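Below is a typical protein record.
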Amino acid sequence: MIPIRDDNPVRGLPVVTVFLILTCMGVYLWQLSLPPEGRQEATTLLGFMPGVLFGYARIEGGPWVSPAVSIFTAMFLHGDFFHLAANLLYLWIFGDNVEDRFGHLKFLIFYLLSGIAAANTAVCAAAPPAIARQTAIAKTKLFIVSSWAAF
């Protein structure tokens, strides 16, 4: 069964969790508004590619953001609806509790550090062009394991 909520009460509104969910949804809707070739171009130019970061690969015409910044932009890209839905479902279920425990700012930093760790996982695995789809499993596992450690 797929969980849709948890029974752990929180003390306040999970502002960062809601912001991250809305941001991911907004980016996905923006991706959908592009023609198919535009979607592929946006994914290439905003997604994280280890080869571009380390200088042994190039993007024709240049990326829209620096390779280092692409680590962060890739955190908000999703390959399809089910990828988006799965990530946001687990962010909704676990994020509010972790945010409640850490506080808003520390949770946001934790989320961004988890994305950096996922990008490093892609680098270590010598993955081909890595966007969020290819690092989602590592990011989710790190997020869940760290969430358990917080409690």
Q: What stands out?
A: The chain has one domain: 15-150. The chain has a mean pLDDT of 80. Helices lie at 15-33, 36-46, 50-53, 67-73, 81-102, 104-124, 132-150.
